[in-house]
Design a protein that fits this description.
single chain; 430 residues; alpha+beta; 14-stranded antiparallel barrel; two-stranded antiparallel sheet; 16 strands; 26% helix; 50% strand
Length: 430
């Protein structure tokens, strides 16, 4: 009886062993980008793995890379049925729609991912480029709009300092903190146009408007406008972008600051999940009112970020900055400085509707000029932490709850402060 049972079970055992062997071989081929081999092996055993999310994603990618777009779409659809939060799968499905000339479906899916505020800026830029290619086929450019309304509580809108401080040997009391609530409004209109798929160039124009209106302390109200045209060049492993900037800011209802900037930016894909992003930004800052002309400055900012896509729903990014600001005229002590900064960001799409993000930063700023009143050169060390929860009410309409804490310690006590903020916002994309 045992021999008969073994004879019955032996074919099942051999089949399972062969299946797992083929799967392992397919994964080795997939990771080495031998998609023809991985597709051949995965296609042979896919009927036994229909419920396996990872298997279907590998099959979909292998099918896409070898031109089997119908098979790829079916595999990605099986992933979507079991894991609707998989952002990477949505992007791959949108690419497949495009290759199948299902342009409306591709645009809708790209737009759906683009409406998620938790995706990193470089992924957002790649989606914009993809949308521009869809629009080019449809003989039109692609435009999208983001609107935000936010109620904000700020515990220290005037950056009131902590404790008494000495100036020219005289002990002065701390500046009283002012707390207030504000209504913040934000709008962005971005248009992107693919110049030509053969050379990989695209043009982007982005207009942004921001306003912060306090309930009681109107003199701290802020409004801000920016226009950022850019030229983008993208090929398989890297993206280059040249961004210009024109900015204008009002403070307390009066013209306050304008600036011009130029920023070359470069992104390189080490692997499908690991990316480096480097940028160099030059900005000329000009203050409108005569009393603040000594604050006019030239600013140079060098940044480098390393981003790791941990899972199809989450990423982590570390970014470092080196900043130099130098005055144009006058002798204001608090213009010329060097600053080093580090930021760490993490985001996770927990479910179809709920996402979480957290960021933490450290910075050190050293001023170059000596202050006789304080008897030293000013040096600030700051840290800040923020986190947020985003909930999708309906597609392209999200609610967000966020909070932040910031503490800055200065060797000149007048500039030591802390502040907390809490905000509830509604974000709508079109």
């Amino acid at each position: 009886m045992k021999k008969i049972l073994l004879l019955l079970l032996l074919p099942l055992f051999l089949f399972a062993t062969t299946l797992e062997t083929d799967y392992r071989k397919a994964l080795i081929a997939y990771k080495s980008k031998d998609f023809q081999t991985s597709y051949t092996l995965l296609k042979k055993i896919y009927l036994e793995k229909l419920a396996d999310v990872n298997f279907n994603f590998y099959l979909g990618r292998s099918a896409y890379e070898t031109g089997h777009y119908e098979t790829a779409l079916a595999a990605f659809e099986r992933v979507a049925m079991q894991d609707s939060t998989n952002i990477r799968n949505k992007l791959e499905m949108a690419r497949t729609y495009f290759m199948l000339k299902m342009y409306a479906d591709a645009q809708n899916l790209y737009s759906d991912v683009l409406s998620n505020p938790n995706i990193p800026s470089n992924i957002r830029r790649n989606i914009e480029l993809s949308l521009s290619r869809v629009s080019k086929v449809q003989q039109k450019s692609f435009t999208y709009v983001t609107l935000m309304a936010e109620m904000l509580y700020d515990s220290n809108i005037n950056y009131g300092n902590i404790g008494s401080f000495a100036f020219n040997g005289i002990l002065l009391p701390p500046t009283a903190k002012i707390s207030d609530t504000a209504l913040q409004l934000f709008a962005n209109v971005s248009n992107i146009y693919d110049i030509g798929s053969k050379n990989g160039f695209a043009l982007k124009n982005s207009f942004s408007f921001f306003s912060k209106n306090y309930r009681d302390h109107k003199k701290f109200n802020i409004s801000y406008f920016s226009y950022n045209p850019s030229l983008i060049y993208k090929v398989t492993h890297y993206t280059a972008e040249l961004v210009a900037g024109i900015d204008s800011m009002q403070f307390g209802g009066r013209k306050y600051l304008s600036s011009l900037s130029i920023m070359p930016r470069f992104e390189y894909n080490h692997t499908p999940n690991l990316r480096s992003i480097a940028a160099l930004k030059y900005q000329h800052k000009k203050f409108t009112q005569t009393a603040f002309r000594d604050l006019d400055a030239n600013r140079l900012e060098l940044s480098y970020a390393l981003q790791d896509i941990l899972t199809p729903r989450s990423y982590v990014q570390g970014k470092i900055y080196a900043i130099n600001e130098k005055h144009v005229r006058g002798s204001n002590l608090y213009v010329d400085y060097n600053e080093g900064k580090f930021l760490l960001n993490y985001a996770n799409q927990f479910s179809h509707s709920l996402a979480f993000d957290i960021s933490a930063g450290l910075r050190e700023r050293k001023y170059k000029d000596y202050s006789s009143g304080f008897g030293s050169k000013r040096k600030d060390i700051g840290n800040n932490t923020s986190m947020g929860l985003t909930y999708m009410i309906v597609p392209k309409l999200r609610a967000r709850l966020s909070g932040s804490y910031e503490y800055v310690h200065s060797n000149q006590e007048q500039f030591t402060y802390k502040k907390e903020t809490l905000a509830l916002s509604i974000v709508k994309t079109f």
